[in-house]
């Protein structure tokens, strides 16, 4: 399945037809939204709406680019060289409530949640019950993941003392509910627990068939649960959820020889869930390849400090005369990610959302935190063993975080790893790094609530420091 599903969201309305050929048509008026909800009657209708949710996840202001890039430029992995003046304020961590990215990321994630809620709350659907349940289960996972992603950027858990009782984001469970047009911010704990509940419901609805990695199944649901539990330090839950994926034996750590190619093919053996792209349906110049690689944009460059953590033999490091790596050093000394999301044109690479290697490292960290360091070391070393890197002598928190940085670089994890472990953001390059390494707890560990949202909804107090 490629993103041709972008054009499948066609639902009969009381006064006509709403087609998804434009993003505007996916954002109907309140009256139209009532018609949409009442017009979802068959499995095909339900499938069309969930396809719309997947499509919205692929747009450049979510997994198509911005969510991933923010996780990198907020960290010590990358910065912006202002080649096309993109991600400069973001790399400075100098955003305002009026900043475009604060608004577009917020808005996109809530439109994804809106599509999921249409599916979840649809009643009286005609068709095979198992198929209906499978689609609804996917919607529950999408709703949980989108709220979690919102929380990691807009929640106050890492700001000014933060914690579980601090302000999170509104957990929205109905599509344009007239009685709740101005939702309040749930606490961080409430968002976490509601996401867990959605994932539990999802796994009860879906079967275990792997199918296409471009659709969510129970293993993807468990992987999302493991990711959330890892972020919050719910170690037993993280262990159990990651183990559900690992014990399935449906996935494997990709080999050194196949590693680079795995980012340019669909459904590699390490892929748990990925966003579809094709030669005719992709984010083009606004996607990940064009912001990372040298070209018309090419604003996001790798910092030398990141390149330095790799051994010469490590396939994830810098290309040398003896090996091709993820990072390319250009004649002017600029370092760029060219190995992940490599297809510059026609930008047809699927976008990995969850790889098996992440689950292995989550599993290792959970084993360490639940007093099984020897077993944690076994799982930690499964990654460097397949990358041309030296194995670790011990499973420690710092080693696991180092391996996560090596393995998951350019995929949007680094900032969140620093935040969840209550670390300052390292200031490693006075020449290239635009922010100066904010200390943990600083206001810019969270994005501002968009001004338009803050002004329109008195139940959305602005984040600290903005």
Kindly describe this structure.
This protein has about 475 residues and is mostly helical. About 40% of the residues lie in helices and about 5% in strands. It has helices at about 30-40, 45-60, 65-75, 90, 100-120, 130-155, 190-205, 220-230, 235-245, 255-260, 290, 305, 355-370, 375-380, 395-410, 415-420, 450-455; strands at about 10-15, 15-20, 80, 270-275, 300, 325-330, 335, 350-355. Strands 1-2 form a two-stranded antiparallel sheet. Strands 3-5 form a two-stranded antiparallel sheet. A hairpin with a 2-residue loop joins strand 1 (about 10-15) and strand 2 (about 15-20). It is globular, with a radius of gyration of 21 Å. The protein starts with 10 loop residues before the first strand and ends in a 10-residue tail after the last helix.
Low-pLDDT parts are 1-32
Give the beta-strand count.
Answer: 8
CATH hierarchy, class? Mainly Alpha
The biggest beta sheet, please?
2 strands, antiparallel
Reconstruct the topology from this structure.
Elements: E1 11-13, E2 16-18, H1 30-39, H2 43-58, H3 66-73, E3 78-80, H4 88-92, H5 100-121, H6 129-154, H7 188-205, H8 218-232, H9 235-246, H10 256-259, E4 271-275, H11 288-292, E5 300-302, H12 304-307, E6 327-329, E7 335-337, E8 351-355, H13 356-369, H14 373-380, H15 397-408, H16 414-420, H17 451-456
Antiparallel strand pairs: 1-2, 3-5, 4-8, 6-7
Helix pairs in contact: 2-5, 2-6, 5-6, 6-7, 6-8, 7-8, 8-9, 8-13, 9-13, 13-14, 13-15
Pfam families: SusD-like_3, SusD_RagB
Domain SusD-like N-terminal: 32-228
Signal peptide: 1-22
């Amino acid at each position: 399945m490629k993103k041709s599903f972008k054009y499948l969201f066609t639902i009969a309305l009381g006064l006509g037809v709403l087609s998804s050929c434009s993003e505007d048509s996916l954002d109907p008026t309140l009256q139209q939204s009532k018609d949409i909800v009442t017009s979802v009657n068959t499995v095909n209708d339900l499938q069309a709406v969930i396809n719309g949710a997947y499509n919205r996840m692929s747009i450049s202001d979510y997994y198509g680019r911005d969510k991933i890039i923010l996780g990198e430029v907020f960290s010590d992995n990358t910065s912006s060289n202002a080649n096309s003046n993109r991600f400069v304020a973001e790399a400075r961590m100098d955003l305002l409530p009026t900043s475009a990215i604060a608004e577009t990321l917020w808005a996109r994630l809530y439109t994804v949640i809106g599509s999921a809620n249409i599916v979840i709350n649809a009643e009286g659907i005609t068709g095979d019950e198992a198929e209906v349940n499978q689609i609804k289960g996917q919607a529950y996972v999408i709703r949980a993941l989108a709220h979690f992603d919102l929380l990691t950027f807009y929640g106050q858990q890492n700001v000014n003392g933060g914690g579980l009782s601090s302000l999170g984001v509104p957990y929205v469970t109905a599509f344009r509910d007239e009685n709740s047009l101005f939702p309040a911010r749930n606490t961080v704990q409430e968002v976490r627990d509601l996401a867990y509940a959605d994932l539990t419901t999802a796994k009860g609805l879906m079967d275990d068939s792997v199918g296409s990695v471009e659709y969510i199944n129970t293993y993807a649901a468990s992987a999302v649960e493991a990711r959330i539990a890892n972020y919050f330090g719910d170690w037993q839950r993280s262990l159990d959820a990651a183990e559900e994926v690992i014990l399935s034996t449906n996935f494997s750590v990709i080999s050194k020889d196949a590693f680079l190619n795995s980012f340019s093919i669909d459904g590699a053996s390490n892929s748990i869930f990925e966003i579809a792209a094709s030669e005719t349906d992709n984010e083009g110049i606004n996607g990940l390849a064009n912001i990372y690689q040298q070209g018309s944009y090419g604003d996001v460059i790798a910092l030398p400090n990141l390149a330095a953590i790799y051994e010469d033999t490590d396939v994830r490091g810098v290309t040398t005369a003896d090996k091709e790596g993820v990072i390319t050093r250009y004649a002017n000394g600029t370092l760029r990610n060219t190995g992940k999301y490599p297809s510059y044109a026609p930008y047809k690479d699927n976008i990995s959302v969850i790889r098996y290697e992440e689950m292995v490292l989550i599993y290792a960290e959970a084993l360490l935190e639940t007093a099984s360091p020897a077993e944690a070391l076994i799982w930690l070393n499964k990654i460097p063993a397949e990358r041309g890197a030296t194995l670790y002598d011990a499973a420690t928190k710092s080693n696991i975080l180092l391996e996560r940085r090596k393995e998951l670089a350019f995929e949007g994890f680094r900032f969140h790893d620093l935040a969840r472990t209550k670390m300052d953001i390292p200031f490693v390059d006075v020449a290239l790094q635009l922010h100066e390494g904010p200390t943990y707890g600083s206001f810019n560990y969270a994005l501002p609530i968009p001004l338009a949202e803050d002004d329109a909804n008195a139940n959305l107090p602005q984040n600290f420091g903005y």
